[in-house]
Amino acid sequence: MRCRQIVMLGAAVGTMLLASACSVQPWVKPYERDRLADPIMAWDRDAISSAYLDHIRESREGSRGATGGAGGGCGCN
Amino acid sequence: MRSTSSLLKRCAMAAIVVASTAFAAGGDASGPAPSFTLTTLAGQPSGLSAYKGQVVMVNFWATWCGPCQQEMPLLDQMYKKYKPAGFTLIGVNVDKDAPPVKQLLERKPVSFPVLLDPANQVSKAYHVDEMPSSVIIDRKGQIRYIHRGYKPGDENDYQDRIRQLIRE
Amino acid sequence: MIAALLLVRSTSADVLPDNRADVFWSKYSGGGMDITGYSATARAKITENFAVEANYFVDKVSGASVDVLSQASVIKDERKQKSGTLEYLHDKTTYTASYTSSVERDYISETASFSLSQDMFGDLTTVTLGFANTHNTVGINSGTANKPDVSWVGHALTRAYSGGVSQIITKNFIAGVNLQVITDAGYLANPYREIRYLDPTKTIGYTLANQVYPDTHTSTAVQVQGKYYLPYRAAITALYRYYNDTWGVIGNTYELDYTHPIRNRWIFEGRVRYYKQNAASFYSDLFPFVDSQNFTARDQNLAALNNTTVGAKVTYAFLPDGWKVFKRGTVTFDASRIRFNYQDFRNIKNFGVAQGFGPGSEPLYNFNANVFQVFVSVYF
Asked: Which of B17, B132, C28, C230 could form an SS bridge with C35, CB 3.0 to 4.6 Å?
């Protein structure tokens, strides 16, 4: 019951974002990404270390999943 | 229900149009190149008007941008090669602070002029929507080509365009 | 008895990350267990659009944890894990495929996973979708550490579906939300752990018996996180994860991180994490009599527990500006201390009738664990 509500809420938010994104321009320009490009702003500087800590927690807790992050950075191509 | 699906359809079409133009690495562009005056690292004022009558490539770069660093030595080579034929490359740096720019250029110097745009006025005027961006301007001061991003091999593209405009 | 990793770690989809190699050492000690790990990882771009990564990890386990009662001898085991990843970047989409195999004397786990990461909306938004399929083979060692006698008791299949959105909110602030649904089927219990039920005919007051787990399990986890750039050059991260599953476990995770660099040479990081969960519906520390429920478990991972972690990490760049082919070289030390508290799991290994504790009144279990990591990373 909870799971279905969460997924429906996610779909609703996603649709709203998509609909609103079409009329809005990106508000952070590529030349304004100096701070986001700083290595300290990466979600995960050392994947090998975070993976190890996640592994320790999953072995000793009843929870699992949804860890990690993507995106950010310099946005260069 | 109908209005939502038609809204989504319009949005999807808009997204496709935007995407098809945005994803192109390089595109022909038009219009007069906005003039600008910025300062060099040494504090001297300089701008586009100093290179009137030449083919100019304005390259927007930053110290925090990986692909920008990658293309710098190739841009330097290109500048040295085509300068005698009436070509100039202006490196417009968008960093907020000058010290990292100074440090980087001390370690990896370039011979083309570098101007500082910390307030991003020139970036805004040229509608920079990708880092790095290179705008190629002809002898008459018209924007002819905008190249977005950098991938190894793109320098061949730049050279083709520059040669074409030099011959005009 | 450790499950293979199901997470797919992805990065920004505009350029593939720099080439990198790491050599890693880790040590976990707590709750009677000592685990030393060694690992080597390397990733390289074959072309501008295509990269490969390989990782090798060895864990050496020794010790006797509090819940392993029927084995008199100390556990000594080794786990070897190998994984390979391929990454392909096209325009603003990154496709990742990876395979991981983890082998221990009494547990084999193989995972194949695939994910897709798409940058959109001026590179402000990144959407990620992933799928992972894991097959586990579970065994039990009825011999000793030095003279093992392993028999295979079952298989389990796990499927993980994940989705995530990362959004740049301002020049200083990035936020994200992840959702992961995991379903498993098959033999899902830890064969070494046992339940106990009241038995007045025994001197100790209880009898041990095998756990009986459901053969299916579905879980949902949602994590929200944000990272903010402080004006003097530092970053602060906050995250919250909500977890629930069909076994009745609800878990809440809260974490706060602070990262403070010093110019190009040092990065200091501090973290605090709090985790709390309630017990699974079929869990009990002490069942009233034999076969009192359809499903029974006394695995401490399913007990009502909380834990608090305090950690610190220091990274020093011994090659801040590169040297020859190396762009950068760093060495990192990471230390965490975790305090585990159980609300309904008792320490029956060290306490019982002989010490004056009747069944069900032994002290609740708690322990501290120290986790150390040291690794050297070179970028080229």
From this structure: C28
